[in-house]
Task: structure prediction
Amino acid sequence: MAETLIAAIGASLLLYLLFGGADFGAGILELVVGPRAQPYVDRALSPVWETNHVWLILAVVLTFVGFPAAYVAVSTYLHVPLSLALLGIVARGVAFTFRHYDPAPPSTRRWYTRVFKASSVLTPFFLGVVFAGIAEGRMHERLEEGFLSVFVSPWLSPLAAAVGLFTCALCVFLAASLLAAERGPRAGGQLPYLRVARGAHLAAISLGGLVFAVAWHSHVAFAHRFLDSPVALGCMGIATALIPVVAWSFGRGAVLWLRLAVAAQVATIVAGFGVAQLPVLVAFQAGESITYVDAAAPATTLRLLLMALGTGAVLIGPGVVYLMRVYKSEG
Result:
């Protein structure tokens, strides 16, 4: 039951990265491309973009109920970057709504757009920082050492910065790919945002290499577990093999292949991270850690949680699919 819940949490995070990450990337894309991208961003995000936070909420609730010890550790020792990510989510939602419906002069609406763009960077960056803090093993429970040592130093590191930037680059690549697929091919077969997508793809690949280089240099156990895992290495190999497929899809205007290749690439990245991280959920200093076996709730709680998860999937899943079909259909 614990393994099933871990898989469900991983699937929730994957869906949030695919859909919510693309939304954050759209805000960054608007920051890079300029005002001409705004109408397409608005059309892609409205009115279903808030639905994407369902997947993050699901992952949080499953962790809170199913693995409470891990939830307490992360929400306590990494509460600063978590709060900054949450601040970005709230500010972004408010700014996106107000720039459409507030009967304010254009000068005020421009401020809403600036907040929307800035918060689109803030949230994915600090979500990446949180995942780096979970895996790096710099957290400790010596509260007497002061606020900075306990609650800031564990995530203020080169690895956390590299993972945060990698997450932002991945979100921009997702946004450019999915927005291009939604707009359709131009004359000549190519999809729009080709240059931005290539740049974001190259940045994500380079920053992914930087993440492993920094982790190896910092002697992070996660890097050694990754290189010792055939499954994690296989995931990295699949993600690498999909690079030319993505490039071909952009050049030929193959919308379906592009969506499938991008989704598969992101899925293998998440799967590789998860396989290399497990059984550890949260790493502490001196090699101490919380595994999913240690953190798992009692069997009765896990059983009821899985029953609730299955019921929710039956009730909510079709509704989300229908919502997307209604608002994304051309008719």
Q: What stands out?
A: The mean pLDDT is 87.
